[in-house]
Each structure stands twice: as C-alpha cells, then as structure tokens.
Amino acid sequence: MKVTALHLHNYRNYSDLILELSPALNIFLGANAQGKTNIIEAVYYAAMARSHRTNAEEDLIRWQCGEAKLKLAFERLGVENQLQFVFSREKRRQILYNGQVIRHKEMIGLVNVVLFSPEDLFLIKGAPAGRRHFLDGEISQSSPAYYHEILKYSRIVTQRNTLLKKIRERKAKADLLDSWDPQLALSAASVVEKRLQAVKKLNMLAKLTHRRLSNNQENLNIHYEISGMEDVTEDLISWYNSKLNQFRENDIMRGSTSIGPHRDDLILEVNGINLRTFGSQGQQRTGILALKLAELEFIKSETGEYPILLLDDVMSELDENRREQLLFFIKKERIQTLITATDQAYFPSLASSKYYHVDNGRIVG
Fold first, then answer.
1. Rounded to whole angstroms, how far apart are CA atoms 220 and 198?
2. Is the dihedral of CA 182, 187, 190, 191 positive or negative?
C-alpha cells in the first residue's frame, strides 16, 4: 500500500498544498508549530476518518475559512484509488471514494496506517482504555466486520446504561433487562473472541521483534485480560449471561454496566514482570517500539500489504540504538513512511530519502 499524492485545501495552516510522496521514506523537517504534524494527521484521518489530535472537525478548517478539503490518492494491491473529505463549518462532513459519496463505516480498511507518536510512549503506563483503543484500531483496519461489531457493542452498552439509570430512578422495570442482556452477551463474546485471536498473533510477532531489540536479553509477552474471568476456556456467551445476571443489582445501583470488553485490558510483561507497574522507562519504550513494529506485521499478515507508517516526532524520544533498529526495519521491509523531525541529524544514513522542509504551512521538497 502506498500514498501517491496528498492535496490539502484550507486544511489547518495549509491554504493549498499538492504533495507527491515517495514510495519509500518521506522526511518532513522544520521547527515546531510549522505544520509538520498536520501532514501526518491528514494521512491518518484519511485512514481512520478521525483525527488523533482533536474531536472537533472545525479545528481542521483553516482560520477564517468556511470549508476545507483533504484529498488522498493511494495505491492498494496495484489499483489506484482516491479518498476525499470535505469539511464545512455549516454542514456535515462529506466523504467521497473514487468520486462516489460513501458513509464513514464504508471507508474503514480502505487505507491502512500505523501511527507512532510521543503519546504512544505512555500507552503501557496509561489507563486500560488507551490499550483497548489501540487494539480495536488495529483489528478494525484489517477487519471491517469487527469495526461494525465494536460499534454495535458500544451502542448496546450505552442503551443498557440508559435503561439501568431509569430503573434506578423507578422509571422503568428491571425485567426489561431480560431482552438487552442476551444481546450484550452475544456481541461481547464476538468482540472478545476476535481480540483474543488478534492478541495471540500480535504476541508472537512482538516477542520476536522485542528479542531483536533487546539483543536476546528479554522476553516480551502480551496477553488479553478479561475483566472478572480467570479461565478463558469457558464459553463466553454463557459466562457473560451469567455475570450480567449476577451483577444486575449492582449495575442498577451504579447506573452502568460493570462487565464486558469495555472493562478489559492488554497486559505487557517482560521476563514475567508487568511493564506498566515495574518496567523501567527504557523497557517500556522498547516494549512500545516492539508493539508498533508488530502492528505493522500484523496488518500485513491480515491484508497482504504493509500499512503506511507515520512517525510523528518520535526520533527525539528514542535513543540512538532504538532509532537505528527502527530505521533498519523500515528500509529492509520497504515500508512507505512519513516522518516528522526537527533535526536532520537523526537520519545520518538516509541520504537517499525524500526530504521536505516545512515553514509556516509551506513545503519545499
């Protein structure tokens, strides 16, 4: 998979940018707050239909402009395609795929990306929600069916929580949960089964990568933790139905659903030690790097092609050895990569790469 061209019109601080990209490494250099990350964000948005920096789409529109456009030309399995997004301060966002209007859920998986930003360095020691979000994003890119299932599950939880509050306030009867709980159990089981399959493959890939990064000194293990379950060999649908019934009174009192994949976690361990609790900063960063490289391999194994790699200002956060390992992997596997940095000195051996100098919304390639 390759991005061939990017066109931004009144997007962030770009009035009109047409950018042809190299199929190899594209390195964007410049001082902070000049627009480097806006390029990364635009490619990420084209893949996920959302920004990793803001939930407000108006933020994407250039100051004092009423409309913005993002157009991405890409090649997938040898076929040229185009995605276009039109943002307006007055109307809903419009998405076009090869000139035809499509809905958000129809575009997931058309473009695959892996984003590595400084915020990801806190993935291990952050809250479980961040790790669930990482896992869901990875699986959704290679399985639109999973994306639809996780949306369905989220809707069921939201509707059940609304009902729980009404029951608590004596505005509804508790037996109404009898129709919602089997639906939630079925969807929860489907989500968790797919997550377990993905984590099994991700663990194998990350383990190999981590051993290489640590010079065979450490063993990384990733496993999926189902909240409240000790034995994952149980039938998931039956188990969820049983637990929802067991915690029903407690859920009514709290007004929220206490069991389900929205409570689960992804656990990373090195040599049997939980990285979140006991890992050193160096171990945590090596673990994250291994996880990101494994994500690339996972998506390739599921789709047949490497995704586009987006590295947003992470070179300054990695030591020299980790930078070299990362760049060696990218070059060896010929992965199209977009990198932002403030200093060209981070890339001493990449003279053949395509460099762009970014200055206040203007790019010189």
1. 16
2. negative
pLDDT digits (tens, 9 = 90+) for 124-154: 999 999 999 999 999 999 999 999 999 999 9
Query: Under DSSP, is residue 37 helix (H, G, I), strand (E, B) or coil?
Result: helix
Write out the two tokens for 181.
Answer: 């709980």
Q: SS3 for 93?
A: coil
Q: Which amino acid is at 217?
A: Q
Instruction: Report whether 48 contacts 108 (CB < 8 A).
Output: yes
Cα–Cα distance measured from residue 24 to residue 354, given in angstroms and rounded to the nearest whole number: 8
Token pair 């995605």 is found at 83
The per-residue pLDDT for 352 is 66
Joined tokens for residue 162 = 């609304």
Q: What is the pLDDT of residues 188-207, one digit of tens each?
A: 999 999 999 999 999 999 99
Q: Is the pLDDT of residue 19 over 80?
A: yes
Residue 5's CB: how many other CB atoms inside 10 A?
Answer: 13
Spell out a b/e string for 74-100, using b for 16 or more CB atoms within 10 Å of the CB, else e: beeeeeeebbbbbbbeeeeeebeeeee
Lowest-confidence segment of 17-26, 72-81, 316-325 by average pLDDT: 316-325
Which amino acid makes up residue 135? L
Domains of the chain: 1-112+306-365 (3.40.50.300), 121-304 (1.20.1050.90)
